[in-house]
Amino acid sequence: MRKAWKKARLLFHTYRLIPFLVGFFCSHEIPLSKKMTYVLIIFAYFVFPFDLLPDWLGIFGIFDDVAIFMWILQKMIEASPHHLKRKYGV
């Protein structure tokens, strides 16, 4: 239950992640290959029309897009150094 609440809180505070994302991509501690991997994953997901659930299913189609986006953000947070997490409160 605690993990689900943490994910829901992350969803509602996504706007606060913008400075974290800038810090993540400007950090010299994170290898360029890892940064490029995340950029390619995000780019590929938005460019290719494949969805887990089609968007014409209404709220369910949007839900899978949000879920995958949040999963990518969560993986980026896990891959970041501890001082970057503390600095931006994630």
Automatic annotation (TrEMBL):
<feature type="domain" description="DUF1232">
    <location>
        <begin position="39"/>
        <end position="71"/>
    </location>
</feature>
<keyword id="KW-1133">Transmembrane helix</keyword>
<feature type="transmembrane region" description="Helical">
    <location>
        <begin position="36"/>
        <end position="53"/>
    </location>
</feature>
<dbReference type="InterPro" id="IPR010652">
    <property type="entry name" value="DUF1232"/>
</dbReference>
<keyword id="KW-0472">Membrane</keyword>
<dbReference type="Pfam" id="PF06803">
    <property type="entry name" value="DUF1232"/>
</dbReference>
<protein>
    <submittedName>
        <fullName>YkvA family protein</fullName>
    </submittedName>
</protein>
<keyword id="KW-0812">Transmembrane</keyword>
